[in-house]
Amino acid sequence: MKKVFCIGEALIDFVAEKQGSDLSKAVQFTKKAGGAPANVACAISKLGGKGIFVGCVGNDPFGKFLLDVLKHEGVDISLVQLSRTFTTLAFVSLAEDGERDFVFSRGADKELEYDHDLRKTLKGNILHLGAATALLGGSLEKAYGKYLFDGLTKEMFISFDPNYREDLWKDEQEVFIKKCMPFIEKSHLCKFSKEEAQLLSGKSDIHEACDVLHEVGTQIITVTLGSEGTLLSAQGMKKIIPSIEVRPVDTTGAGDAFIGCLLNQISNLGNFDPVSEDFALLEKMVAKANKAGAITTTNFGAIVALPTKDQLEA
Ligand code: ATP
Question: Where are the transmembrane segments (predicted)?
Fold first, then answer.
């Protein structure tokens, strides 16, 4: 079984209790562990894989809370860095018009320093670059570039999820697109939402979007489509793989469950060649990952709702 290094942010989401009020009026908040790469590491560990989280949190009670959650889920946290800067926080509420009201207080996550020792252990393993905050700057962004390079020289399987957040890139979409390109070029697998595929390719048709993004470089593309399943595009073939029918209560973390489950399956295969892998096998793997995403929507919260191996197989 290969190790899956998930690099990027762990943060606290403070979610306003009362929907329908904007943040200026919100009074009570629920504290939740979050951050896409941290969620993906949990998804892998809950499925019995080797999820390793590499990120920076504050040496404060919120950082301790995040590490306790990750440890509880079986994630390897030995490479986590601690900072004197406060743990990154996000405050979220649903305003009356249905729009998300969002305040982001970026702290320790940006301070992740490139780890020379980690480089030695990368060979033959899986690198997942999926931070929503990585391209916003800081030493985390520099580390991302270096790990991408290491992934290439150390014969790793590289996975990229741009995790676009409109709130963070409001008037700077072009900058975001430009910064994503080297990652799309060099990664073996890219996971996009429909909106991300459209934004990054400039095409509204998702099939055409995949063609454009393959031309940039990546070999396997999955475009997650919520209840409709996932468009798989690889080896010149495209197919929408349907999801299972569920009654969703909270879709947070479905995308992380999906990519976590897919990477866990790849980690269990002895040899996995993104260029020549059998399309039928990829279909089966995506169908299983769809199931993991679907199950996650049936429970509240991201990490708590991620399925275990038994739940996925039930
Ligand atoms: P995120 O917002 O977490 O980044 P995302 O937009 O990438 O996520 P989704 O498309 O919402 O992810 O979900 C990922 C996968 O989970 C989908 O491709 C699908 O297979 C499954 N899924 C999500 N929502 C549902 C649903 N309502 N019914 C069935 N399956 C679902």
Answer: none
Q: Of 287, 277, 274, whose CA–CA distance to 189 is shortest?
A: 274
Closest by CA position to 64, among listed 83, 40, 45, 48: 83
Which residue's CA lies nearest to atom 20 of ligand 1? 290
DSSP β-bridge partners for residue 150 = none
Q: Label residues 114-123 b or e (16+ Cβ within 10 Å = b).
A: ebeebbeebe
- Whether 176 is covered by a domain: the verdict is yes
Q: Is residue 287 part of a domain?
A: yes
Cβ atoms < 10 Å from Cβ of 312: 19
The Cα 264–Cα 40 span in angstroms is: 10
Instruction: For residue 295, tell me if it sits in a domain.
Output: yes
**Residue 43 falls within a domain, yes or no?**
yes
Candidate of 251, 286, 290 to mutate for ligand 1, largest count of ligand atoms within 8 Å of Cβ = 251
Asked casually if ipTM beats, i.e. exceeds, 0.85, the reply is: yes
- Provide the domain count of the chain: 1
Tens digit of pLDDT for each residue in 39-94? 999 999 999 999 999 999 999 999 999 999 999 999 999 999 999 999 999 998 87
